[in-house]
Design a protein that fits this description.
The protein is an all-beta fold. It has strands spanning about 5, 10, 20-25, 30-40, 45-50, 55-60, 65-70, 75-80, 90-100, 105-110, 115-120. The chain contains no helices and eleven strands. It starts with a strand and ends with a strand.
Amino acid sequence: QVQLVESGGGLVQPGGSLRLSCAASGSISSINWMGYYRQAPGKERDLVAFTVDSGNTNYLDSVKGRFTISRDNAKNTVYLQMNILKPEDTAVYYCYVRGVFDSGSRFDSWGQGTQVTVSS
């Protein structure tokens, strides 16, 4: 079983910054995909950014140049640095990871979600 613990959300003014983190724990051998989705009220869940074990990253067009995703493999943790936040970034942000257990079986897991509100 994998547990994900998210932190870092909150209320920030437009133009401000927040950093989200998501730590995975359990009998994990490796994590090959880590990313964040977000869901605003009444809207579908969108993929915001992800990073794979090769180090490659990918971003939603609307956050390119403002958000940076990174990972600490030793801590099984992914971070999302969000700068120049806009009201349209307001959403619940969910961490999602895919990997392999020590047993060799694969897993995927969602975090509990963290609210990000951008408002003056």
